[in-house]
């Protein structure tokens, strides 16, 4: 591995303008200044291989077989090359033997897309320094790659343009207020019957994609409206992912220390959120679920809760966040950790599998990328993933996103619907002239 340090003359945003024009370029964007985890951003490009619809077992084999042997990984940035992309929510169907298909796949997207990345740009927001990183057979080859990279940076000025896009985009929800509230009540009935303790219920907004719509320019606007520490923009060739997720799923350092930061509980006012017994109970149940997930792959007694139900503020919203940590067993890898905890408990429910079966019967379509994970798994054992919420997806025909919330025995169906409107608001505000239906509100 070869690193080239150079003074920062442009922001990651402007570098991304050049590279994200190419298919399978990924921008992992720490877009919220001041957040504790807002340090590194990466622009990954020119993957050596692309893998689609691969199981967790195959992913482990791929990462091991293609691992770059460069001795000790002495890097100033956490990512040292490896697999990166997305793991869709429906990847779990095979893993957890969930074969019933109550809902159709409306989008026909791969359940998982991962690239092998050996060349990327890294930016440290705290130190305001940047690196170009690559793997090469020789120093001469690495120097030539770096020269090509610098030449491409000369194109930055020609790519700068207005972020504004004219026109009206009308979104429609796949649930009316009444329909959503009835589904919430069905979940509450399952809780009363002892089937589950809680479940996450979502609905989808969708609009036709106008010809003028530029996914990258819209992502710049979305990240301004809804800045978040675990954001990402992914050009997946035939479709694009625009994520402004506030939630970390799993973070593993190269020494095998894993951290997960579940979010459960959302309100406009932080004081009201802290006083909410329903939101606190919801968060604690998911913390318990994640402790159980991590105990499968971590050493005995290492799994701890280092923070329980603290508040984090974002534009227009406050969330309850907890932190669960543990030491991964020597025989396990970061992908073993991902497999053990996937999909995240904060967007499924407890018990996880039974909650997922109930969700499958009530929602109007498969979740796809929504509530899966975006991120990377490095050669050195490190990993960083988010929970794919606050995530817009677009292909040649449509633009869509989901919003949802956790349902407990004390949930009020009307308030649960209002919470989905609150979460959708920040995304809908990013669309110029955007009109949407939030029925009966």
Topology:
Elements: E1 2-6, H1 12-19, E2 25-29, E3 40-44, E4 49-52, H2 56-65, E5 82-87, H3 92-95, E6 112-117, E7 119-124, E8 129-134, H4 139-153, H5 156-159, E9 170-173, H6 177-192, E10 198-208, H7 215-225, E11 230-235, E12 240-245, E13 248-252, E14 257-260, E15 263-267, H8 270-275, H9 277-295, E16 304-314, E17 317-327, H10 334-341, E18 349-350, H11 352-362, E19 373-378, E20 383-387, E21 391-394, E22 398-407, H12 413-428, E23 435-436
Parallel strand pairs: 9-23
Antiparallel strand pairs: 1-8, 2-3, 2-11, 3-7, 4-6, 5-6, 5-19, 7-8, 9-10, 10-18, 10-22, 11-12, 12-21, 13-14, 13-20, 14-17, 15-17, 16-17, 19-20, 21-22
Quick one: CATH class? Alpha Beta
Q: Please give the alpha-carbon distance between the first and last residues.
A: 55 Å
Task: Give me the CATH architecture, please.
Answer: 4-Layer Sandwich
Fourth CATH level, the homologous superfamily: Anthranilate synthase
Q: Within the CATH hierarchy, at the fold level, what is the topology?
A: Anthranilate synthase
Structural class call reads alpha+beta
The average pLDDT value, as a whole number, equals 88
| Tally of structural domains | 1
Main beta-sheet strand count, sense and barrel state: 13 strands, mixed
Shape: globular
Summed up, the helix count is 12
State which percent range the strand residues make up: 25-35%
Count of beta strands: 23
